[in-house]
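Methods: example folding runs. The two proteins below were folded one after another, and each record is reproduced exactly as written to the output file, sequence line first and structure-token line second.
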Amino acid sequence: MSSKLLFSTFEVTTQAFYRASLSYAIVNLKPIVPGHVLVIPNRNVPRITDLNDDELACMMRSIKRVGSVIQKVYGANALTIACQDGVGAGQSVPHVHFHLLPRKSTDPFAGRNDDIYPELEKTEGNLASDMNDVSGSSRLKVDADEDRAPRSLRDMEEEAAHLRRFFTEAESP
């Protein structure tokens, strides 16, 4: 399962840590909380309603599986799962995807859980322009806003390698 993975037109193969038959998961350059990841369908479609039933079922199973693992790995007891489904909802990259954020009482949003949504909006709003900056850059700019420092591609690859260990061979890229 080493085929190239695209998020819209952007290659994200080295950031992938989980792969199912019709979807995959990647780490985030500027996570809102530790363990913030994305689950993405293999087929590039802009909206949830564009997914066929098999793709949607695979996405939901992937969200369940990846969410369960990242909760354990990051010591969380809850998840925020979000999808900006369409331009009017704040989507800036026309490839449907879900944000999974492991949550715990000590995270930066403890006691004010809804404050995480404006952060997600900022993240999503800059996504397309940040990803366009990848060309010729030593730093990958994925799901980023200016309030969080970007991690290096190497840091992201290391996190992906760490997370990959929690999945079976059939589930890992």
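Second run, written to the same file directly after the first:
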Amino acid sequence: MSRRVKLSASFGIVWFAWVLSPAQENPDGSGVQVPPPAVVQEKLREWVKVKKLISEETSKWEEERQTLVALNELRKREVAQMEELTQASGNRLQEAEAQRRDLLSEEEALRQRRATLEEQIENAEEALRRAIPVFPPPLREKVEASIARVEMAGAEMPLQDRFRELLIVARAAVEFQQSITVSPDLREFQGEQVEVDVLYLGLSQAWFVDRRGDYAGSGSPSEQGWQWTEDRRMAGPIRKAINIHRKHAAPELVSLPFAKRADAPTTKTSVE
């Protein structure tokens, strides 16, 4: 467009010079031929019109040029922003991929730990199921609900619930093992139901006696449960130990025989 404006301006200058140039003689020497005033005025008007058109086109071109320059700068900024976004997206993609790998690795580690924990819980449940038969009635009554859940535990039960029930039963068993417990019970002697008091020394030994002292004996745990042996001669010492435990008598040493086992000699214990 700039070249067109320059050509138009040059044409106007040449044309204007021709109009205003001195009159020339005709080639045949017949004299000078002068353009009529009307023709001159018309040419001037045309020249002014052309000049105005050139000025307008020049002005429009300048405006368009400035617009193109602004658009070009805008495009440059947009390209720079797109490059920055592309770079940032690439960085975020790399970070996301690294995080994904870390999460997958962590997930695998958690899966392995869960498998190990599940195996340990299953082993503990199996060991506890084998020990449940030796739990005396007062201990079983204390954790009866948890024992039932342990006995029926399976893969459908969440691990945290299975572990909680194991912990409840194990804690109760430890507390019982470390204490002396007296609990009432009903025993059958000669076809008759007799109420007795049972003195448990943890989970290792127990003695029983009825209130009149007619029936007495001792017991110890086995794989089939508690095994009891009657021995009426133990009635007095057992009742004395129970009274001491209930604080119905002053503390003193009481000799109580353990149930007959090859590795269980008679011992003396102080019951308070």
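Comment on the second run: The mean pLDDT is 82.
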